[in-house]
Amino acid sequence: MKIKNIFFDFDGVIVDSNEIKSQAFYKLFESYNITIAKKVLDHHKNNIGMSRFEKFRFYLNNYIDDKKFSIKLLENQFSKLVVKNVIEAKFIIDIKFILMMNKFNDSFFKKYDVERINNFKELHNLLFKND
Question: In this structure, what are the phi and psi dihedrals at residue 38, rounded to the nearest 5 degrees?
């Protein structure tokens, strides 16, 4: 069987970013209310596979009674808290090894469709941070 596609999930697979995301969810709501921040953190940790947009919607509908909060505002603040730390996060050893193998050079990535993007803007910032 010939390989047609390979998918790499960046967060928690290529880099160890799970704790970074957990801290960001807590900090996002800490100034609003520490009790709410703890509920958000617990919910986040119990629902790791849920998208952050779904989580934001859940928090706004169930925990926050303040019209100044919006999904867009939360997303912007969350990105500011996360991007720099994810860039600096440690690679998960096995993935780093795979990415460094000669089989996985530029021609490999051009030959196969390699994508798994939750937020294209964040990915672009990560890949082109020195440009």
Answer: -65, -40
| Contact of 26 with 98, CB cutoff 8 Å | no
Q: Cβ contacts of residue 90 below 8 Å, gap of 6+?
A: 15, 16
DSSP, collapsed to helix, strand or coil, labels residue 116 as coil
* Segments making up each domain of the chain, as ranges: 18-87
Are 11 and 86 spatial neighbours (Cβ–Cβ below 8 Å)? yes
pLDDT in tens, 56-73: 999 999 998 877 888 999
Q: Is the pTM of the predicted complex or chain greater than 0.70?
A: no
Q: Is the CA virtual torsion 9, 15, 19, 24 positive or negative? A: negative
Residue with tokens 């928090």: 59
